[in-house]
Each structure stands twice: as C-alpha cells, then as structure tokens.
Design a protein that fits this description.
The protein is of the alpha/beta class. It folds into two domains: 162 residues, P-loop containing nucleotide triphosphate hydrolases (Rossmann fold, 3-Layer(aba) Sandwich), CATH 3.40.50.300; 120 residues, Zinc Finger, Delta Prime, domain 3 (Up-down Bundle). It is 54% helix and 7% strand. Strands 2-3-4-1-5 form a five-stranded parallel beta sheet, with helices on one face. It starts with 9 loop residues before the first helix and ends with a helix. Bound molecules: zinc ion.
Length: 329
C-alpha cells in the first residue's frame, strides 16, 4: 500500500502525488497495463494515501485509516468483486458501485472504488457506471484497472484520467529479483527475459515452486516437438495437465522458445537467447523452419491462450496446439 515499495512506475506515482499536493484529484481514473504489471499496487497506494489522516504524499502507516487499509478492511475503500470468472455484470456494478456510492463515506474524506479487471465489464455494466463517472458525488473516486483498454467503451475512457503503466527498468528489476528475492544471477536473468519489463510476472515465475519443473517440461516438449509420435503426444499432454495451474507461464515459455528460434534465425546471436543451453536444438529448428512457420507457431500459442481465457476445453485446446506446432515443420 506504499508508493515507496513500488518498483518502477515513477510517472504514475508522480502524477498521483502531485495531484494530492495540489488537491486536484480526478473522480475517475483508468490504470491500464498488462496483467501483473502493478496496477493494483498503484491503486491501493493511491487510495491509502488519499485516505490517510496525515494528508501527505505517502501513507503514514500509523493512523486509523492506514491501519484499516493494511488489514484489508477499510470501509471507504471498496474493491469490486464478481462471481463469474469472465464477466463483471451490470447487477454487480449497480449494487457494489452505483447504489453504494450514494451513501456518504463512513469515516474518511473519500469513498474510493477499485475495479480490477474492468475490461470484464460488459457494455451494459460500463453504461451503468457511466452516469456515476459523469456526475460523481464530491467524495467519490473510481479507479478502473484494465489489462485491455480496447474493451472499454469510448464514452467511459473519455471521462477518465487514463494512466498507462510502462515496463520497469531492467536494472531495477534485477536488483529486486537478486536482493529482495535472493535469486541467483542466472535465474534472475531468466525471469527478467521472460517477463519483459513486467516485474509482477517475473516475481510470479520466480515464486512458482514448480518453476524449474515447468521450464524443464517446456524444454523437453519443445525439443522434440517436430518428431512427436502418438505416444509422445500423449506424454506431452500429460505434462501440460500436470502444470495446468501454471499453464499461462507454460505457454509464455513456449512462445519464448520460438522467439529464441526466430532470434537465432535472424541474427545468429546466442547471447540474447533465453534458453541458451538448448542452442544446438534451436539452431536446427531455425534452419528447418521458415519465418512464416515460426510466426504461425507463435500465433497458434497466442490463440490457445485466448481460448483457455474463455474457458475452452483444456485437453482439446492443448492437443490442437501440439498438433499445430508439430505440423508445419
Ligand atoms: Zn495514515
């Protein structure tokens, strides 16, 4: 909940702090950025700072408001939740925001609503919140967090202050991964490459106890993908089921594999490879595969990810993916 604990995102933090200093708070913000890029931390720190009784540009940590915030029970900072995984319904927006905001804050200066995954609000839900954003009560502040700005209605976007997260600097990420998380240099660099400026994503990978196994499994599958027979296909599928919980990371790593193959094909440079240890296998794949084939494979993985996002059947999606990756060699 502290700005000082956030790595990177200096522009957004500066914006929040100066708006507090100048007492020019907007009533509606959109924080836009990748999954795990730090949107929630930014929103929480801003909310805590706004509500802190000391009224400075960082939460004091000791007042009644800060203590409640730290315990996750602040009555005037409301995080909107939703029941179904892929949608925030119009009813949920009405009960948790539109109706609720009519009641004055219990004990703080503001009443702050944080809506994570705001892209899951369907158009009706977004229209329901529009009026609140247009004519909010003096004390009302709404923070919409989204990983897909394209899913937000233009009418909503135009009434919000839009803040985009930027990739975190490499050296800041390395410092965090090595000093705070005690990763070895090799592992820190692997997470860094994988996460591409998204510290949350790097932390998740580093924190994943299955991490080493996931990487081994991906390497195992990708090495022999072009020669998979029926038995091995079943074996690969079994692997993916085993890591079902980490399947997003799993597929990101598969993409990184092909990114490496592509890099090798284009530059022949080994230094920038994520999977340096697999250089000889990759070189062979880079020779066999056309640029178009590599691109198609990366697309196929992205498509499989999207399908799983909308709850497509796991086994079928994965089997199709493996067949596609095997096929156009
Ligand atoms: Zn405080």
């Amino acid at each position: 909940m502290y700005f000082r604990d956030i790595v990177g995102h200096e522009d957004i933090i500066r914006h929040f702090r100066s708006s507090i200093e100048q007492d020019k708070i907007s009533h509606a913000y959109i924080i836009s950025g990748e999954v795990d890029s730090g949107k929630k931390m930014l929103a929480n720190a801003f909310a805590a700072t706004l509500q802190c009784e000391k009224g400075e540009t960082e939460p004091c940590g000791t007042c009644k408001s800060c203590i409640k915030m730290a315990s996750g029970n602040h009555p005037d900072i409301i995080t909107v939740s939703h029941e179904k995984p892929g949608i925030i319904s119009v009813d949920e927006v009405r009960t948790q925001v539109v109706d609720s905001i009519a009641t004055k804050p219990y004990e703080s200066r503001y009443k702050i609503y944080i809506i994570p995954d705001a892209q899951l609000m369907n158009p009706q839900a977004q229209n329901a919140i529009l009026k609140t954003i247009e004519e909010p009560p003096e004390y009302g502040i709404i923070l919409l967090l989204t990983s897909n700005l394209n899913k937000m209605l233009e009418t909503v976007i135009s009434r919000c202050m839009v803040l985009n997260t930027k990739p975190v600097r490499e050296r800041d990420m390395l410092e965090y991964l090595m000093k705070k998380m005690n990763l070895t240099e090799d592992r820190a660099y692997f997470c860094l490459d994988f996460a591409q400026g998204n510290l949350g994503k790097a932390i998740k990978l580093a924190d994943n106890s299955e991490y080493v196994q996931v990487i081994d499994s991906v390497v195992d599958v990708m090495k022999k993908i072009q020669h998979l027979d029926v038995d091995e296909l079943a074996y690969a599928l079994e692997h993916m089921q085993k890591f079902k919980m980490s399947i997003n990371d799993y597929m990101d790593l598969m993409m990184m594999w092909y990114r490496d193959v592509l890099m090798l094909k284009v530059t022949g440079n080994i230094d920038k490879l994520l999977f340096k240890g697999e250089y000889s296998t990759m070189k062979k794949q880079a020779q066999v595969l056309s640029y178009k084939a590599i691109e198609d494979k990366i697309d196929a993985i992205a498509k499989a990810k999207t399908r799983l996002d909308v709850n497509a059947n796991f086994d079928i999606t994965m089997e199709l993916l493996l067949l596609t990756l095997k096929e156009n060699f």
